[in-house]
């Protein structure tokens, strides 16, 4: 059964989504943390923020890919040493794109985890 646990640290209050399970069918229960919500207990706000972050990262990726495409195009206005600069810029562009792609993968995984936690919370509410 999943639920939102409130805990205090000094003057601040933090929220976690935890799942309770019995150990070997006995009375003793163990709480397994599923997700740290921080100071905001509303899972829907976290989902909205995760969707916004993912959309922003996808926009950044499109811009990086567009810039990388235009940087790779030959130009008559470039000086003689432009080939070396273009190669360096292309390598840097690939590195930036790789970082953004990794950030997108992390954001998608976080969004998936939030959806799974929301499903478990709703399922727990139905059981009560």
Topology:
Layout: E1 2-9, E2 12-22, E3 29-38, H1 43-72, H2 82-127
Antiparallel strand pairs: 1-2, 2-3
Helix pairs in contact: 1-2
Key attributes of the depicted protein:
128 residues, alpha+beta, 2 helices, 59% helix
Could you explain the architecture of this structure?
By secondary structure, the chain is an alpha+beta fold. It has one domain (2-127). Helices cover 59% and strands 23% of the residues. The chain contains 2 helices and 3 strands; from the N terminus they run E-E-E-H-H. The chain has helices spanning 43-72, 82-127, and strands at residues 2-9, 12-22, 29-38. The protein has a 3-stranded antiparallel β-sheet with strand order 1-2-3, with helices on one face. A hairpin with a 2-residue loop joins strand 1 (2-9) and strand 2. Helix 1 packs antiparallel against helix 2 (82-127). It is elongated. The N and C termini lie close together (10 Å).
Provide a short characterization of the protein structure:
The chain has 128 residues and is α+β, with helices and mostly antiparallel strands.
Helix count equals 2
Largest sheet: 3 strands, antiparallel
Summing up helix and strand content along with how strands pair, one would put the structural category as: alpha+beta
Radius of gyration: 23 Å
Q: State the low-pLDDT regions, or none.
A: none
Number of separate domains: 1
The helical percent reads: 55-70%
Distance between the termini: 10 Å
Query: Please, what is the average pLDDT?
Result: 82
Tell me the series of helices and strands, N- to C-terminal: EEEHH
Strand adjacency order, main sheet: 1-2-3
Number of strands: 3
Overall 3D geometry? elongated
């Amino acid at each position: 059964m999943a639920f939102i646990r409130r805990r205090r640290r000094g003057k601040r209050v933090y929220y976690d989504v935890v799942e309770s399970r019995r150990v070997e069918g006995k009375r003793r229960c163990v709480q397994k943390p599923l997700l740290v919500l921080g100071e905001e207990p509303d899972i829907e706000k976290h989902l909205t923020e995760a969707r916004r972050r993912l959309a922003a990262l996808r926009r950044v990726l499109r811009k990086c890919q567009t810039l990388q495409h235009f940087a790779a195009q030959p130009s008559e206005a470039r000086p003689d040493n432009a080939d070396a600069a273009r190669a360096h810029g292309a390598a840097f562009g690939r590195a930036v794109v790789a970082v953004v792609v990794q950030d997108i993968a992390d954001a998608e995984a976080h969004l998936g985890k939030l959806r799974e936690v929301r499903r478990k919370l709703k399922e727990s509410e139905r059981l009560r």
